[in-house]
Amino acid sequence: MPLVEQWEVVMKQKNNFFNFPLNEIEKILELNSLKKSYATVIFKSIYQKNITSFLKIPEIKKENAKIINQIFTLKEWIKIKKSFVEKENGKITSIKFLVQIEENCFIENVLMNFNYGWSLCVSTQIGCNMGCKFCASTLNKKKRNLETFELVQQVLLVNKYLQKKFNQTIKNIVIMGIGEPFDNYENVINFLSIITSHFSISIPESKITVSTCGICDKIEKFATDASKINLAISFHAPNDKIRNTLMPINQKYNMQKLIKSIKKYQLLNKNKPVTIEYLLLKGINDDISNAKQLLTKLKGINFYINLISYNKNKEHNFLPSDNIELFKKFFEDNSIKVTIRLKRGKKINASCGQLRNKYEL
User: Fold this and answer.
1) Which residue among the candidates 121, 213, 216, 352 is catalytic per the annotation?
2) Residue 8 designated active-site
3) Looking at residues 229-246, what average pLDDT do you find?
4) Torsion-angle region of residue 330: left (phi > 0), alpha (psi -120 to 50) or beta?
């Protein structure tokens, strides 16, 4: 989004500082006759030193800090409404947060505890319009996109929780929560720019994954806008017939278009591998013939496959498949790197949208 347009958006949010990537902070400071170099000082102070006021930044003269304080606000607009902890053998495996965005509007974050550290699942919209039949996020439809600052503050909010409770921080981020990230593309790109900056939270790009249901034009754009961020594609079907019944997006971007976009993404991005996400649903897409057909479809793509076991919920009638290990063996036998996503949050309504629906319906 051009600076002027974004400025108009942020004016509505009282110039929220967390809406701006570093380069745009620099431009705004210059427009106000302030040093461009103040931007990195401010970023380090707010994001790394947890300074909560521009007036408390020692490197900036008071008269200049007062001007900056008139331009931006550091107010935290979102808050944790409730948190739910899941344990296994006495160890915390996941924590789900119901996060209030505005009056009677909620999103969800899931914090997952792995051997390599804490991974946070970020939401990008209040609700979702993609209509995937197995997902609870779509039941209330999309109310609106989340602004950049609302994405950034999810990370800050959960990091603060982690530091207070365990003296730890987030190591990985997956943008797989409520909403379709590429349906909120510009805000997601700004968010990625902010959190990966060496002057802010500094999450390594290799530790971030964005998942899309298959918005083809944005997949191709992502190759140049965020080339070092990992990309995951929600496939969940071996052919158009099954995918049409599960994912309405396939009626606009069918599998032929989707595969073409992935190949173009890899052509633009040095053949960077993508993760193919595949949710196994009993009697729907879990026959071994489906695995064979999927492998044929993906010929010519550099990919990993992530098999997902379905978290049964009251919103839908789908059942978990018994064939997940069979699928895993098939792909391994065909020299494809395959993982099974660890089941986390079953006891705490961790499937996207389940918890939010309880409070909004």
Assistant:
1) 352
2) no
3) 98
4) alpha
Spot the catalytic one: 86, 108, 150, 220.
108
Which position has the token pair 């379709």?
Answer: 180
Q: What's the chain's Rg over C-alpha atoms?
A: 21
Q: Please tell me the distance from the alpha carbon of residue 295 to that of residue 336, in angstroms, as a whole number.
A: 9
Whole-angstrom Cα distance, residue 33 to residue 109?
39
Q: Is 272 exposed, middle or buried (0-12, 13-18, 19+ CB in 10 A)?
A: middle
Q: Is the pLDDT of residue 265 over 90?
A: yes
Question: In the block, which residue shows the tokens 């982690």?
Answer: 162
**Amino acid, single-letter form, for residue 287:** D
Neighbours of 72 (CB within 10 A): 20
pLDDT at 102: 86
| Single pTM value for the model | 0.91
Alpha-carbon distance 188 to 190, whole Å? Answer: 5
Helix (H, G, I), strand (E, B) or coil at 33: coil
The DSSP line for 51-75 is ---GGG-TTS-HHHHHHHHHH-B--
Amino acid at 230: N
The pair of three-digit structure tokens given for residue 174, joined into one six-digit string? 């997956």
d(CA 299, CA 309): 24
Q: pLDDT-derived band of residue 77, with 50, 70 and 90 as boundaries?
A: confident
- Contact between 227 and 262 under an 8 Å Cβ cutoff? The reply is no
Q: Report the pLDDT averaged over residues 244-266.
A: 98
Other beta carbons within 10 angstroms of residue 354's beta carbon come to 21
Residues 359, 106 contacting (CB under 8 angstroms): yes
Q: Do residues 210 and 230 touch, judged by C-beta distance below 8 A?
A: yes
pLDDT at position 61 over 60: yes
DSSP conformation class of 178: S
**Pair of tokens at residue 207:** 């530790």
| Best CA proximity match to 321, nearest among 354, 358, 290, 360 | 290
d(CA 6, CA 8): 5
Q: Is 108 a catalytic residue?
A: yes
- Single-letter amino acid code for the residue at 326: L
> In angstroms, rounded to a whole number, what is the distance separating the alpha carbons of residues 9 and 191?
15
